[in-house]
Specification:
44% helix; carboxy-lyase activity; PyrdxlP-dep_Trfase_small; decarboxylase; alpha/beta; binds pyridoxal-5'-phosphate; Aspartate Aminotransferase, domain 1; lyase; 482 residues; transaminase activity
Length: 482
Amino acid sequence: MKKNTARLELSKEEMQKYGYQIVDAIVEHHHTQHEKFPVAFGSREEMDNLFLEEAPESGMDASKVLEFVLEKVMTNTANMAHPRSFSFVPGPSNYVSVMADALATGYNIFSGGWSIGPAAAELEIVTIQWLLKIFGFPKKKGGGIFTSGGSMANLTAVATARRIKCGDDFSKAIIYLSDQAHSSNIKAIRVLGFKKEQIRIIPTDNEFKFALNKLKNCIAKDRLEGLHPFCLIASAGTTNTGTVDPLPELSKICKKEDIWFHIDGAYGGAAVLSAKGKHVLKGIEKADSLTVDPHKWFYQPYEMGCLLVRNHKDLSHTFTEKPEYLRDIEGNTSEINFYDHGIQLTRRFRALKFYMSLKTFGLKEFRDAITYNIDLAEEVENLLRGSKSWEVVFPATLAVINFRYNPIKQNYSEKELDEINQYISHKVVESRKALLVTTILNNQVVLRMCLINPRTTMDDVTETLDLCKTFAMEIEEQMTVS
Ligand SMILES: *Cc1c(COP(=O)(O)O)cnc(C)c1O
């Protein structure tokens, strides 16, 4: 037989050179990213022109491919870690975790079963325990699992809630969430095969919180009709406004009604590390399950979500299936096979980045960064309140602030204000100097800043507001002309 030369390998020297080039590029990026644009544009046509080709039959020099990627791929993407990336939920990330991801991938560690990777499973247990303590969950009984993100954590939660509360028959099951709940929750519910008629979207009050009386009435009505209320999803930091639902009250309702209490704290949950956040998030420890998203405000790179549960057995009861080919690797119950606690069998080693970054920086540095973010948003609110041009539409909450351009002396109509603020956002994004898009609150177009990047400074904010003002004046001029 001919010797196999198709080994998909580089020589040792080539590997080193290639690796150093990549590390150099990443370090350079981290060092200079604030000088680059946070916004990228590219139509399908432009991207096709850059990249569309048949799969090459023969390869080319690795460095050439890398050079092309650094030049064309890495530059044609928004930078969610940029200090002026204010929209959606930014991804500030941190370098230690980036390298940890490189290690996890470099060693191609399988994080599914104990016997294949005892240290990997142990680090997931340890870091989950850190999180359980941070959120005030029972440390012994509690458990959790790392997922690709918040969406998968929410999916895992609803699947668990259904299994525990409904068993196999969920034909009468009803699930409750507010009109401010994140869309990934509805997606999860639909993916799991619930009909639209089984979903109750409860209106929110004027602070965008779950309207408790409407919820209670709805549950009572469903009971009367012989339906089975089984799960409620609360938000701990809505994406729009950072609002936290009345968690202690919702917990009481769920206890009384025997309803699974899931809290989606994907972006906001991390705030529990700061004194202010802990106060706002009171009651988060009462959840049956809690989604947090370390790739948001725990400063981890993508992808990393997490589901914590009050009782770790609920996960294994939901996700354990025993095929014969996994027979030989079943351990005892203390040696957790994470494939029995969630949807994935083969899983990447996500715990490593959380472990290494927390060991390197310490919890205090995370606390300080999160506290800084919350204070910064409050400082921005004060600044806006002190100005005659800006209106605070919703106060700074968990580092999110909603505002709009609305100079007192002008008396613009709502329609004009919508137009002006939409224009401001459009032009700011077009300038590529800041990522600042609008959202809709109470039918008003408003600007929204999510300030969870610890490297964002007050100057980043004020310079962006100045930029907004130039564009505001530009459209005001156009409006007086026409
Ligand atoms: C971002 C977010 C999600 C979805 O998380 P992904 O990591 O994007 O999948 C869910 N809920 C809330 C409140 C979020 O902010």
